[in-house]
Design brief:
Two copies of one chain form a homodimer.
Chain A lengths: L5 H11 L5 E5 L12 E2 L9 E2 L3 E4 L9 E9 L13 E5 L11 E4 L3 E5 L2 E4 L9 E2 L10 E3 L7 H9 L4 E5 L4 E6 L3 E2 L10 E2 L2 H10 L6 E6 L3 H11 L4 E6 L5 H11 L3 E6 L2 E2 L3 E6 L4 E5 L3 H19 L6 E2 L1 E6 L10 E11 L2 E6 L9 H5 L2 E5 L11 E6 L5 E2 L7
Parallel strand pairs in A: 5-6, 13-16, 13-17, 14-15, 17-21, 19-24, 23-25
Antiparallel strand pairs in A: 1-12, 2-11, 3-10, 4-6, 4-7, 5-9, 8-9, 18-20, 20-21, 23-27, 24-25, 24-26, 26-27
Helix pairs in contact in A: 1-6, 3-6, 4-5
């Protein structure tokens, strides 16, 4: 249990957690969830051969020696069904998305024709069969699986669910998450101002980290350093799928929260990880709940959330992509590393040719919450590193806000 | 207006839209919004010099010739205030986060000491002044600006807002968005099944694309190809900050929706963009509203949303990062390009050494919605491209779901 690496601790967490089950949600509320069922097409789409252009549906043989003048027998709009069969020397005026009439084997766009009269058109070019026709079932075929269980529901998936008219959809249930702060030194958001206290930033930073995943957590409040009060709070927290307990620096998660959790039936899997910030970082398994004991200061607590709680919650939601996206980028300055723990340095990123330049947010003290509010990524300094020189190629985990950039993508 | 490039059209859109104003929201609801005020610290944090370790607060001069045995005069926990002054030969037991008592100038961690009795401790090593002390104001200084107007509210920002006890915060208001589909061929989600109709996927795909930004749009429904009905729907839509109108393939956005919008006072800025999919793509400005005329088929509509509506909505929300993040990656196969429009190819990405391999989702017909549900990115084929060879370095705009990856970041 001593000298547990970040990777090894992550593996324990991710192996331990279980998916809390399946539920049905409305199409309007399913974005970001994970499909728990295969979805099949319930019709051919398009339901018939349709025109891909505004133009004329005709028999290709009739225009083999174009130009040729044809008789317009019908106008077909999207939503109309053709009523006539196109015979030799005939054509139908057709709009994009409208069904190709029987008899016609091709479509020619209006730009390649010339009006002769209301009922006659001159076709100026020859055209092969099946030109500008979208064949029946091109988009989907009745009965085929169009979406697989396990897919994350992105807007494209929502569109496909609407295409098969799924009003409700089976998804993995979201874990219910409770957040508890501990410590006599803490001042609640709505408590009166006391210059000697420390505001409870942890509850709200963790709340927001959970909200990023689309989960609305419950804030249990602040447990004071009083054994029975703490026990009652923890007991309440264990009614949720996931309990996040942070702080309690005066007595320490290891001295006080941990034995109370154990007395409540929680099996602790680990309580220290070789990382900085975040050395005291605990994880336990209860009958119906998973408990994370996070460090007391907000920076450490947030970094531990990123490394352990985030992948756990995403796994519980049914995701297979559970870790923050990483990029390889260029470090702009030296970073010293004189211990044997993995370090997560809060960094800012600047675009440069083909990649990014990485710069520390400044002082990395774990009490400096501004370093998290400015951070665009967490640079990983491996445990065995002897320090990194300016110009080194480094790995950065991208934090929230980095899904978008200032400049338009590419030149076009 | 002819031959308008994607970049030029984006510039028109982004220059035209305006921020709809400022509102106050609760801390619990501010994630993802943009700060509309500077935030100042309202206290020093920490409020006093605090210990960074569990250990002993003492006078460094007393241990210049360590080992030395000192008298323990007090126990100080986080949340306690010291009641005594440390004199020569004395120390105080101190917990992480607790105030350093007067008289003491340094802290030594418990691991470097040895208990002698309940009231005496042997200090084994010498220690410099200010060791393991977090100075008052290290985290923030009373009155300093800790968060700037214009910052996106990430979890780190939420933590900082909680640290300064902001129950409410001023943010840019979200635009109100209405979505309208048009066309006789469309079948609503709750309409009875009709094999000859096409389900209205657009309304829901666009809904989800708007939801990604944290905005809940209003779905106006489907306007049939009937002038007065369309006019009423559009008039209703113009009551919102942004109106998205898609479809109407039977009559065309250019033949029918556009003149109706103009009759309603909308000044059209453009109605065609040199792109594929999405050639018919309109943008107009009304007195209190911005209107996007999107193509009728869902793939084109979604791509146009990505390129034009997304940056517009993010700009209106106050963001400066308004475009999808792009990566440079390796194309695994040839892509032909025989026209002079910018093409957006739906692609999947596979991790490879230092970057990604890019592969088309398959057939790129704009009626093939599956290509959007599988897509992880949009590969940009510039208008002037003569085609791209396998192995080419290409630009890919990352779509939703790509903020996370399968593997843990780095090795640690």
């Amino acid at each position: 249990m001593e000298h547990l690496s970040v990777n090894a601790a992550q593996a324990i967490v991710v192996r331990s957690v279980q998916l809390p089950g399946i539920e049905s949600v409305k199409l309007e509320q399913c974005l970001g969830r994970v499909l728990a069922e295969d979805i099949r097409a319930n019709r051919d789409q398009p339901p018939y051969d349709v025109s891909a252009m505004d133009g004329f549906a005709l028999r290709s043989a009739d225009v083999a020696n174009a130009p040729a003048t044809l008789l317009i027998i019908e106008d077909i709009r999207a939503g109309d069904m053709p009523t006539k069969t196109v015979q030799a020397g005939q054509c139908a005026r057709i709009m994009t998305g409208a069904p190709v009439p029987p008899g016609a084997d091709t479509v020619i766009r209006v730009e390649d024709t010339q009006a002769v009269s209301d009922t006659q058109v001159q076709i100026n070019v020859t055209v092969k069969p099946n030109n500008d026709i979208r064949p029946r079932g091109e988009g989907m075929r009745n009965g085929e699986v169009v979406l697989q269980a396990g897919m994350e529901i992105t807007p494209g998936v929502v569109g496909m669910l609407a295409m098969v008219k799924r009003i409700d959809v089976q998804v993995y249930r979201q874990p219910r998450v409770a957040i508890l702060s501990t410590g006599d030194e803490l001042e609640g958001l709505h408590d009166p101002f006391n210059a000697n206290k420390i505001p409870d930033a942890n509850s709200y930073a963790l709340m927001a980290q959970v909200q990023v995943l689309g989960i609305q957590p419950v804030l249990l409040g602040i447990a004071r350093d009083e054994p029975e009060e703490l026990r009652q709070y923890l007991q309440q927290g264990l009614k949720y799928d996931v309990l996040l307990v942070s702080g309690g620096t005066s007595v320490g998660v290891h001295d006080y929260v941990r034995p109370t959790l154990e007395a409540l039936g929680v099996q602790m899997k680990f309580w220290r990880v070789e990382m900085k910030p975040g050395h005291p970082m605990a994880f336990g398994v209860a009958a119906d709940s998973f408990v994370f004991g996070l460090p007391g200061n907000p920076v450490s607590s947030m970094v531990c959330f990123e490394e352990f709680v985030l992948p756990a919650l995403r796994r519980m939601m049914g995701h297979t992509r559970i870790y923050r996206r990483t990029i390889t980028a260029r470090l702009t300055h030296e970073v010293k590393h004189k211990h044997s723990r993995t370090e997560f340095v809060r960094v800012m990123l600047a675009r440069e040719e083909g990649s990014y330049a990485v710069t520390s947010t400044g002082a990395q003290g774990s009490g400096i919450l501004a370093s998290m509010s400015k951070a665009e990524g967490l640079m990983v300094v491996p445990a065995e590193s002897k320090g990194m020189a300016a110009g080194s190629s480094v790995t950065v985990q991208l934090l929230d806000g980095m899904a978008y950039q200032h400049e338009a993508g590419g030149e076009y």
